[in-house]
Design brief:
heterodimer, B: alpha/beta, four-stranded parallel β-sheet, globular, binds iron/sulfur cluster
């Protein structure tokens, strides 16, 4: 990665303070930048910023970098960082908070499938009360990589042959009331 | 046998156990039948929301959990078993955060009220691994043992969310309960240092190069240490390790064809369960080994 200069004037420390108010993010400012989270993270190798750096970016208020990086979409929510952090910082919850912010402001990397998958999943469950893996994969491929059907075909066929993928969508009886509980929030 | 296991459990399958993880549900039901422990599926349960909901709308994620817990509370006196690690963790987190954060509690209360659903009371959420370990116990399993395991050495893979961030099932980094149960049954297990490293979750589908790389490392270490099969307790771990072995072999130039099983499949088999009921036919990788290992006697085969 190229070395970048960040200017103080681009930072909005107040934004970091807002993040720290969210449930699970309250210990953000006690980070000692020890890097234990990055060391234990199975995904840090593939991230643009390691989890430790993301924490530093939020604290300083560099919201653009923190929200548009691939790191948050590579986080697999394995909770390794949260369990290992010597300062009891729930890094996983902070990653979740950033994902939500990025979706709200629509600043995630375009055509990056993780947020698309999350959104399609969100919609399916809201509609039916259950997830349909079949539909989900279909929608995801359609929206991010229409040619990807071919590369996924082998796995799909193997799953179909072993009876592990069914095009049937299950719907709960009380779907209407569940939808009511999930309103009024609307996510694009 | 403990009190709980006599009463039986409420059971929250979750979406994966009805589709890609069907073998987990099928083998679990068969194992509990062999153990004579009643399971009752939670009525009209909804999806737990997994990791995706937390990343889009936290309130909605907790509402999904709260509705399931609320249904569970309508059948009091029994623990709720959640076999999928993501479901288990999300239900635990819902309980934890609604009690810890007044702000979350208020939001969930309002949402439940909108839908005219009662707020959940306290229900104990359990994972099958820890039910098998504590309530059933290695002694009882040993007494019921009917077959030896012919499938050689096993790598026990615990994954993430069953043991983290809530570590009531087992230790967050060095869990041993699966190994102890299997060893008590006479099965050899390897010292698998990656047993709680992540399987990459949904990333195998969304960012395949990363997902497959992570699973390559997991498989390679298991094989290097001499494992002939991997045993899991989570549908996501199972599918990630099982479904991409051909691609991983092609990319790495190493040949992987190793069965990825669920703990109840192995235990159920040793307790005399049938191959079909334990859903071994749903495995993708290592099928030729399974055919070799799992031989039913002539009488068993004749009894359909
Ligand atoms: S492990 Fe905790 S204290 Fe250390 S860098 Fe990460 S968040 Fe900060
Ligand atoms: S929860 Fe996310 S950031 Fe933390 S260790 Fe796991 S993958 Fe890395």
């Amino acid at each position: 990665m190229e070395r970048q200069i960040r200017y103080q004037r681009e930072a909005r420390p107040a934004w970091g303070a807002e993040i720290a108010k969210l449930p699970g993010c309250e210990r953000l400012y006690s980070c000692i930048q020890c890097g234990t989270c990055s060391g234990t993270c199975p995904m840090s190798l593939y991230m643009d910023y390691t989890p430790r750096r993301v924490i530093a970016l939020i604290r300083e208020g560099f919201y653009k970098d923190a929200l548009s990086c691939r790191t948050i979409w590579l986080c697999a929510s394995c909770y390794s960082c949260s369990s290992r952090c010597p300062q009891d910082i729930k890094v996983t919850d902070i990653m979740y908070a950033l994902k939500r912010e990025a979706i709200k402001r629509k600043v995630y990397p375009s055509r990056f499938p993780t947020p698309v998958l999350a959104r399609e999943f969100y919609r399916l469950v809201k509609m039916f009360g259950r997830n349909s893996e079949f539909l989900l994969v279909f929608l995801l491929t359609l929206k991010t990589n229409p040619l990807g059907f071919l590369t996924m075909a082998r796995t799909g066929i193997a799953l179909l042959l072993t009876g592990r993928l069914s095009p049937k969508v299950e719907m709960i009886r009380d779907a209407a009331r569940l939808r009511k509980a999930l309103e009024p929030k609307e996510v694009a | 046998m403990s009190n709980e296991s006599e009463k039986g459990y409420l059971y929250f399958p979750g979406c994966s156990l009805k589709s890609t993880g069907r073998a987990y549900e099928e083998s679990l039901l068969e194992l509990f039948r062999l153990l004579d422990i009643p399971l009752q599926e939670l009525d009209d349960w909804n999806c737990c929301g997994a990791t995706s909901y937390m990343g889009i709308d936290e309130e909605a994620a907790f509402v999904l959990g709260a509705r399931n817990l609320s249904i569970a509370c309508q059948t009091p006196g029994r623990d709720l078993m959640a076999p999928c690690s993501a479901c288990y963790m999300v239900l635990r987190k819902t309980q934890d955060y609604t009690s810890k954060y007044p702000q979350v509690r208020r939001e969930v209360e309002a949402a439940m009220k909108r839908a005219d659903l009662p707020m959940p009371g306290q229900v104990k959420i359990r994972h099958p691994l820890e039910i098998l370990y504590h309530d059933v116990g290695a002694e009882r399993l040993k007494n019921l043992k009917k077959r030896n395991w012919l499938g050689g050495t096993i790598a026990c893979y615990y994954g993430c969310q069953a043991v983290r961030p809530y570590s009531d099932v087992d230790d967050a980094y060095n869990p041993v309960k699966m190994d102890e149960l299997l060893r008590a049954m006479g099965v050899q297990t390897i010292d698998y240092c990656l047993k709680t490293k992540c399987c990459a979750g949904v990333l195998t589908g969304t960012v395949p190069p990363v997902g497959r790389r992570v699973n390559y490392i997991l498989l390679k270490e298991a094989v290097r240490k001499g494992a002939q099969a991997v045993v899991t307790i989570c549908p996501l771990c199972q599918i990630n390790l099982d479904a991409y072995q051909k691609e991983i072999s092609a990319e790495s130039g190493e040949r992987f064809d190793i069965p990825i099983l669920y703990l109840p499949q192995v235990l159920g088999w040793m307790l005399g369960g049938r191959k079909k009921e334990l859903a071994f036919h749903r495995c993708i990788a290592g099928r030729r080994y399974l055919n070799e290992w799992l031989r039913e006697t002539k009488e068993e085969e004749a009894y359909v």
